[in-house]
């Protein structure tokens, strides 16, 4: 089925079966498009750093002082009279003047014929030339940021986002350019050109206007493991696939789940969680649990010699959420029953501290505290643990687990309710 749109004397078709992601550059030691169409060529020898934002593969390193960038010469991608979404993870090393992220330009002195997405005076700045939007939040160097620019052709609305939060919006006409190469790390909006200095990872261009909720999830849904059909693949935006040992697939709370029954050795683990490594970083996780025994570790976080059991079951079946501020911070929950499904969620922010939710309803909280994180990419382990500096003695988990979500934001009660009522 197709939808016909008529706008400004331009007739075109949007087929419902057209893939939504037009381009995706992972920058895992190359500049190829995931779909093999819009492959880039490096200019002036950029390098790569490993790990990138997602903790595996790599990110491209651009040295602005050497005019390093990436160009897609062919095929041409038509953005004129269309909606689009541009997203990337960036790690700026320098923020002064203009630091250009993306461009396609037919004429840099012609209204609406030079598309650009840059940082100007540390803030997001985008537009089509003389039809531009300035963001409000100043970015900092030496931190990962998710940045997004959305143009909705149907509503003539430009919007920029930082870490999933809207940072500016305005009405504006469409892009009119009909020629020009795609550039990453520079644009043609100024002469001489300006360049980005830092790391770029997970760069995507989508041929539609993503919703605010989609952008929020792209920025803050770190991973989602459904465990359906025994899959250990991440169904979130980052592709942080897991591994496991001693697990079987059984009927779950939602479709299928993982059963951990090989006493002492069974586990599920994902690695490369950069989003959970920053001090005072908000986070949330949720899952369905069905224990067959107690005194066990449910969710464990670790990096080298640093480790923390985020959620445990005491010997009497009491659920406890944990975090770290130089010593253990605990939020206590109810006593769970064996062989019964319970939805549990734990959230953290520096303002609210730990909050523990049971079956979609807040049960207990700690109040504010400083989260002393590992500062390095983490492993997340279910049903077992790694020894480390902050470890506490709880055994391996036995039972079943389902629908594991990890977020780099504090979920609110409405978010938790949705997860608890699939």
TrEMBL record:
Keyword Disulfide bond: yes
Top-rank taxon: Eukaryota
Positions of the LamG-like jellyroll fold domain: 82-213
UniProt keyword list: Disulfide bond, Signal
Name of one Pfam family that matches: Laminin_G_3
Protein's name in the database: LamG-like jellyroll fold domain-containing protein
The species this protein was found in: Didymodactylos carnosus
